[in-house]
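Before surveying the methods themselves, it helps to consider a single example record, giving the amino acid sequence and backbone structure tokens:
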Amino acid sequence: MRFDLIAFLKLENYVCEELSNQEFERINGLPLAQKRSSVYKKYVFLDLDNQVVIKGPYTIECKKLKREIVNNYLITMCEDFLALEHTCIPILRVLFFETNYFLEFPNIGFPNPEYALASNMVDKNKKVSLRHTQCLRVSDIEKNLRPGKMLDLTLQHLYFRYIVGCGDMGTHNILCKALDSDSVYGVDFEECCVRHFPNNKLQCLMRVSPLKKFIYESHLKSLKLFDKYLPNDILQKIVGFGLDPRDFEERIKLFQFHI
């Protein structure tokens, strides 16, 4: 992914703001929205005073920063082309202090989470919100959901993640506000995780267990799909990001090929 990120942010009118030393220290002192699974994962800070979450720090040349921004952008373009509602949490601001860059997103979690001190070695003794009091993951509640809009939106979002070739594929990276919510929110687009040898459509989108097959298989018929080729405006953006559009179109055709 070779392109000038700063030029792209300016061209697309992203809000970029420099932090003062005091603001930078404040961010680093915020509680975490989740524990990190490794030192290579970025912090996700929870700022309830401003109802935002802040992810970072990155360097400007960091591949993960570029993927997080670009994949969020491309999925939203795909949704707009097919006239679908957005399922990516929008980036409110790009914040920076010296060589440290952060992405700021609206907080879609509950207003008063509970906290505990992390016991894992990666974030030991850092204040971390308890997941079930901060937000809901679709993976945690899907077995209790009735067939309906949330399951349709979840599969639709995973379809776009598959086409774009981004993110850790699965319903654990899709959030919602309640069991009866009409919206879902995809997160964590900085990984590259494409299923190379799927045997069917559902395996293109997730790791399929018998339970997930039971829950989601009937919702495949509700997906809105691309034809064999992407529209020109999306193709131009893909080329501009230094990506190969043939990879995207190959995944489109592969998905249509499977039953």
